[in-house]
Write a structure and sequence with these properties.
mainly alpha, two-stranded antiparallel ribbon, 14 helices, globular
């Protein structure tokens, strides 16, 4: 009846298709769409929150929706918003305004990193859904000459994408200037800074592990340059050279079995 028709209507307006070479198209919805369905169950069908979440999950999955990007446990919860979400929104707003000072942006990124902490998968996914990956990449782009912003941005991106394919895949977007291209650009602009190189190369290692698309994009956008420069400019830095060696191993290892 009514609920199923409502869910179908939401699907028609809120889904997006995602494909990979050997997979059929996957339909996904936004967190907001899922939360609306849960709220409808609570308000219109007098369900308890847990039952409402379970029912909405079943309804969407029956229609072939991939809910990997949805945090079901916090849907319509009375818990206060996680501080990482408001911190991510602040960075997004600063990037959109294009008027932030380096000090203000650095403070915002560090606040976000602190609120993220050793985040569990759900918090990472929520932060990713809130646009944090794109926001941090935007901050990198705006302040590519700042070594401090570069180091902190690389480190927090590494946390966001580690063991979280949804966030990692955001580095492939947008097509005209993917996030991984910005990473290479910032590395290339700070070749003499061992701290920037170490944090950035570590990020590339995490991003490229089991992702042929990101390995290829890193190389396509000039990633060989920073790797060569590390061996030329930082021979006295064994920690950085170990990181570069490990990253080269990942880049040359065919470990992505999804393609």
């Amino acid at each position: 009846g009514k609920r199923k028709r409502s869910l179908c209507l939401k699907l028609n307006t809120s889904t997006r298709q995602e494909t990979s070479p050997r997979m059929t198209a996957k339909k996904r919805i936004t967190q907001e769409t899922f939360d609306e369905a849960v709220r409808e169950n609570i308000d219109d069908f007098n369900m308890e929150r847990e039952e409402a979440v379970k029912d909405a999950t079943e309804q969407f999955e029956m229609q072939g929706i991939d809910l990997a990007n949805i945090v079901t446990s916090r849907s319509c919860s009375d818990e206060p918003e996680h501080p990482a979400l408001s911190a991510a929104k602040r960075i997004k707003d600063m990037v959109a305004a294009e008027e932030s000072t380096e000090d203000d942006m650095l403070a915002a990124i560090r606040t976000f990193a602190e609120s993220l902490g050793a985040a569990d998968s759900e918090v990472k996914t929520m932060a990713g859904n809130a646009g944090s990956v794109e926001a941090i990449v935007g901050a990198l782009d705006l302040h590519s000459a700042s070594a401090e912003i570069s180091v902190d941005s690389f480190k927090v991106l590494n946390v966001l994408i580690s063991k979280n394919d949804l966030n990692r895949d955001k580095l492939k977007e947008p097509q005209d200037k993917p996030g991984i291209q910005t990473v290479v650009s910032v590395l290339s602009a700070n070749l003499d800074r061992a701290d920037v190189q170490e944090a950035g190369i570590a990020l590339v290692k995490t991003a490229s592990t089991k992702s042929e698309a990101l390995k290829a994009a890193f190389m396509q956008h000039g990633g060989v340059g920073p790797i060569k420069s590390a061996f030329e400019l930082h021979l006295d830095n064994p920690k950085l050279l170990r990181e570069v060696g490990a990253t080269v191993h990942v880049l040359t290892n065919a470990d992505d079995y999804s393609t």
